[in-house]
Amino acid sequence: MNKPVVSKQALGEPVPVPVPELTAAKAAVAGPAYVVLAGISFSHFLNDTMQSLIASVYPILKDNYALDFAQIGMITLAFQFTASLLQPLVGHFTDKKAQPFSLAIGMGFTFFGLLLLSVAHTYGVILIAASLVGLGSAVFHPESSRIARLASGGRYGFAQSVFQLGGSFGTSMGPVLAALIVVPFGQPSIAWFSSIAFLAIVILWRIGVWYKPQISGRKAAASARHPDHPDQRRVRIALIVLVALLFSKQLYVSSLSSYYIFYLIDRFGVSTQAAQLYLFVFLAANAAGAFIGGPLGDRFGRKYVIWFSILGALPFTLALPYAGLFASAVLTVVIGLIISSATSAIIVFAQELMPHRFGMISGVFFGVAFGIGGLGAAVLGKLADHTSIAFVYQLCAFLPAIGLLAVFLPKMPKAVR
């Protein structure tokens, strides 16, 4: 006679609840999808290389069209405001309905934006071209960050760092390519970089083919929540803190990225090409720091990496406005290494706070980063016109002190680190 089957729930025993670490454990067995990670990171490299060209050609545009610093800041704002405004909307939409080939389509906006910038002869057309490149970025970042997480094999910080490494290294290449190509050959040579956008379109289309069958599985995994996850009130506080920390980091980086060339020319009398190479050194250090931060967060906890990466840079940012040329180069390397290591930790921390809204959270934080950079560039440019570039750097040196807000971040469950 068969015994009746009695459920654990009827006996009062706890019933297993699906939580993120179960999904992470399964993914960890398979390990990271290295080919996909390499592809999405390389695409990020190509995307941010093209974006960084805009800031790198500012001296050329300034001379050709007699622009002041406020107008330079408005170009940055036009480019980054487009990305900032649309990224959260793109992320929210793809949370509800994934679009595996949207990355390739979005890169098409960058392609046309570069072509337009190469032939632009009025300030208005320059703003439109910059906006198109920003639109391509808005489509690219939220879903590509999700793909990096899907391909992580449970090593979320590592995957985000690999993804960020491509972007940071691409950003650092812009000044070098501008010095080697755009400065000698002029504004029309920007059109040559549209071939980079075409290459990115091809790669992203292939990644879309891999991503399409993953869509149904990632929806189930994203909906799970750890039982020790912070409550909604603490989640909201933590997200506000993370935005503030990103503000301190990104505004400082934006001040260097947009005006460091002018600072070096004004204070030390270096040439435009030499200043672009100094900017490359800082941005390359940013790339290295962005890669290091993610694995450290996986190992020691993201909160500690955030503490170190933002507050640790403070002594060096305070010293920078008073340093000589060589010492400035050394300090920017140290600052770039330390302050950029927060990027991956902040984004993964935010994703883990809202595991059912990866796209929207990625869009908000990438969008906030772009938006803060754009608004900051415009405000700092206006301030530089009324005071000096040196004063701007003295003021920005105190921004990392906002990192003290990290004390309000909650302790996350160990299993999802």
TrEMBL record:
GO molecular function: transmembrane transporter activity
Every Major facilitator superfamily (MFS) profile domain range: 36-415
Residues passing through the membrane, by range: 27-46, 66-86, 98-117, 123-141, 162-183, 189-209, 237-265, 277-297, 304-323, 329-349, 361-384, 390-409
CDD domains membership: MFS_FsR
Residues forming coiled coils: none
SUPFAM superfamilies the record matches: MFS general substrate transporter
Domain of life (superkingdom): Bacteria
UniProt cross-references to InterPro entries, sorted A to Z: MFS, MFS_dom, MFS_trans_sf
Transmembrane helix is among the record's keywords: yes
Pfam families: MFS_1 (PF07690)
Alphabetically ordered keywords of this record: Membrane, Transmembrane, Transmembrane helix
Name of the protein in question: FSR family fosmidomycin resistance protein-like MFS transporter
This protein's record includes keyword Transmembrane: yes
GO cellular component: plasma membrane
